[in-house]
Design a protein that fits this description.
This protein has 4 helices and 7 strands. The chain has 200 residues and is of the alpha+beta class.
Amino acid sequence: PPPPAPPRARPGPAPPPPAPTAAPTPPTAGGAPGRTPGAPRAGSRRRALAGLLAASVAGFGVVVTLAIAGAGGTGPPPAVEPVTDGEVKLTVRRFADAYAHEDTRALGRLLTADVTRVLPGGAQRGRRDVVGEYARQFADNAIVGYDVAELDIRSGDSGRAAGTYTVRRRKAPPFGGGFVLGVVKERGRVRIGLIAATPT
């Protein structure tokens, strides 16, 4: 008879799965592996600190410059200075001469940027509007003179000139009235900031 078949081997336990290996850290946008995205580099920090230091030095220089100017050192003249009687009187004469010669450019140089001209019939504000109003007057009238009388001058932080005026015209009767000019000195230049007139 044939030999008996060998006994079947029992299946043993399955081998454990291999342990997962850590995936390599992908390179960052800057190309340096292992650096957390968004973390500043040492070079960037150094550049930022250098820029901050330069800005601080520049700001300190501005402060020093202002301190020197305020202490009477070299620097631009103050924005507003007191005006003297002579400066107010000279400004009135220059205004009268510019008006008598119908010189709008000279008038514009005498006025502040925010000058105001007030009459009973209305007002203009700003150098351009005021000079434009005078240009219209010159176009409608042949001016030959602008005479000032009864002048009252006051000096100070804001000068003042008050008096009467008479405008002489060619082939037309004169006209006039009372006026007040407000005079200021801006950065060393004397200008007119207010013109008020009351025709008679």
